Hints:
By secondary structure, the chain is mostly beta strands. The protein has a single domain (2-198), classed as Porin. The protein has 1 helix and 9 strands, in the order αβββββββββ. It has one helix at 2-18; strands spanning 22-38, 41-44, 46-58, 62-81, 87-110, 114-134, 150-162, 165-174, 186-198. It has an 8-stranded antiparallel barrel with strand order 1-3-4-5-6-7-8-9. The protein is elongated. The mean pLDDT is 86.
Amino acid sequence: xxxxxxxxxxxxxxxxxxxxxxxxxxxxxxxxxxxxxxxxxxxxxxxxxxxxxxxxxxxxxxxxxxxxxxxxxxxxxxxxxxxxxxxxxxxxxxxxxxxxxxxxxxxxxxxxxxxxxxxxxxxxxxxxxxxxxxxxxxxxxxxxxxxxxxxxxxxxxxxxxxxxxxxxxxxxxxxxxxxxxxxxxxxxxxxxxxxxxxxx
Length: 200
């Protein structure tokens, strides 16, 4: 399923690129409100950041937008369910620094100076750094703090362009389990708000 999603996006992106009438390049920065949905614990959102660059290739209405940005995302666990099915109140924190590469397909409405956009597409995240701390009570959960070095997700959202300035609001849902544990599932999910500037 994941390979099918990427194949469809790459083929569509190739078609749009071959029929491209415009090319734009820009930079972006913003904030993330993230958490890791876990099937064994209760969690809280954590605030993070993102900073990077984007390109937009397409025609009058449809476009493909690949991006690359450094970001932070993580989670605060406040309790977990142990092997006896008992909820234990205990704190755990994890923070990832990632290189995120989404490839978004979108459509826009309006003029070159003022337009509204909607977009969606897959994103792959490579973990550059991991920082975690857990209460000793979490030792009852097998292999809970052993994480993979990449994750796959899907983004969807909307944006507005005013001249060279763009504002985007997106939701990212994790598709893959970032935990190496065979017993527990952890999937990163986040909202992101970014401000961009078109330089080309």
